[in-house]
Amino acid sequence: MFPAEAGTPLGHGADAPTTRVRLALLDDHGLIVDSLATWFTDHAPDFEVVVRATAWMDLIRDPEFPVDLVLMDLQLGDTVSIESRIRACLAAGAKVVVVSGVDDDASRDRCIAAGAAAFASKTLPAEQLVELARSVIRGDRGHRRPASADGGRAADAAAKPAVDDAGAAHLSAAEERALRLYAQGYSTAEVADRMDVGYETAKTYLRRVREKYARAGRPASRKSELIRRAAEDGLLE
Question: 74 with 99: CB under 8 angstroms?
Answer without folding.
Answer: yes
